[in-house]
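## retry 2 of 3
previous attempt timed out at serialization; input unchanged, resubmitting
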Amino acid sequence: MDNVLRYSNRDDLVKPLSVILERIAVSDPQDVGTVPDDSQPRRPVPQTHQLTESQQQDIFAAYRQGAGPRALAQHYAVTERAIKYLVKKHDIRRDPHVTATEGQVRRRTSTPPS
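## retry succeeded, writing output
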């Protein structure tokens, strides 16, 4: 119990807080800080609007065949995040019988076990 009383009302901590509360009560216009604007999204939306519908369909087909987001982003001059956003938004899944190495499509030679 002694420790609680010793550290609870430290003058070096209480004094600055009381000064701030007094400033708030007085509404000092010179002491107004900047508040972040919450109307803007924290992260910008991926720039997918520059892709045509046919380009999006080509991206989906290439992704299904195993092309990676990095290779697709470089090819279509958009960010990797934009490719990932499109793929997730349209729920595109990769073909389970295709593997890719560094953006190149390679078909499996063996059949999957039954």
